[in-house]
Amino acid sequence: MTSGSGVTPFDLLRSIEAACARCARVTQRFSLETLQADEVEQLALSKAIEQIGEHCNRLLQKFPVFSGSYPELNLNYPVRMRHRIAHGYDDLDYPTLWVIATTSVPELHAAIRRILTDAGEDLT
What we know:
Blueprint: H1 9-28, H2 32-37, H3 39-62, H4 64-68, H5 76-86, H6 94-118
Helix pairs in contact: 1-3, 1-6, 3-5, 3-6
């Protein structure tokens, strides 16, 4: 199964997995306290979450049947977060983004890794 551009659902899953890993690296570099005080950290975390949502949106749009086969991924949630960040809402709640980055993103990351591993992907 490929899209018109030759991209497969597993290509997009690998992109989501990589974006989740980037988000984890970002959160390991600082704390909620420093996030609230540092604009660069706010931008880094916002962009990391935005990228996850963008890849999830592409998967939903290009492969709705495939996406529907994995309801545990709850791909609409990262897409909604991406829209909230990308469309210039000036009142982002950084404590909420921190919770998303440190709880929801790791859960999505683990689920994506399970799917890729079950499909025979080597994630080492």
